[in-house]
Predict the structure of DNA-binding transcriptional regulator IlvY.
Amino acid sequence: MDFRSLQLFTHLATSLHFGDTAQAMYVSPSTLSRVIQRLEDELGCTLFKRDNRKVALTHSGHKLLSFSTQSLKDWQQLKVDLREDSNSLQGEISLFCSVTASQSHLPAILRQFRAQHPGVDIRLITGDPALAIDKVKQKECDLSIAIYTPDLPTDLHFSPLDNVPLVLIAPRDWRLTQLTQVDWTKHQVIMPEHGPTRRIAYHWFAEHGIRPNVYASVGGNEAIVSMVALECGVGFVPKVVLDHSSMASLVTQIPVDDIEPYGLGLCCLQDKQNEPLINAFLQLEMAP
């Protein structure tokens, strides 16, 4: 028994006319008769009652029709699935992001990507978010979750994901809850050594005519939260960092309405954005 024989049988079981089935299936009536005879010999039963006037299915014929219908349906689905597998993306892609982004934004990205492209392996690299752009430029990763900057190199492509607000934090025991309570001549500031938070914070200070009394410059936004929690000063951090910090309960958020938010997104080299694996990431539809 083969699928072609099942196809001929199924058509005949529906048409109940040897001539019509032979014409529709592009075989001769004698070939069709031999196929049905072979099936009957193989199964050891009669599939059709035939006389000079009509053709009818036997009880055994009805059973085979049920089997053949499902088998042919499964066969067609298997061919579709195999065709999709052969056309699906395969390979490995490397992605750089901060530890915080790996907790806040990456899970939703990976869930969607892996659902669409299960054959792709993802190599995750975590580190200081200030390095995200350089990691791409140095080709140490294919993509990074990076923060948009006005001076983004022209050889990079940036695909927005979310806007992340900056918040001013102070030690909880200082009981500072309003911006007007901060004495910038008295309260020292923890600043990042580099990266967008440093640029945005200094821009905000300049707009307000404030000359910050910098106590320390540290690497990474998480370190700012730690230093503030230890009562070393106040500092600006992305809200998403504070939301995922184990020390969040030791600091107080002070509302600042007019500070620029982060533009968070996927970054890659311009000349690589149309490569299949990278483009698949950039085509994801993610709600902020």
Observations:
- The chain has a mean pLDDT of 90.
- The domain at 3-87 is CATH 1.10.10.10 (Arc Repressor Mutant, subunit A).
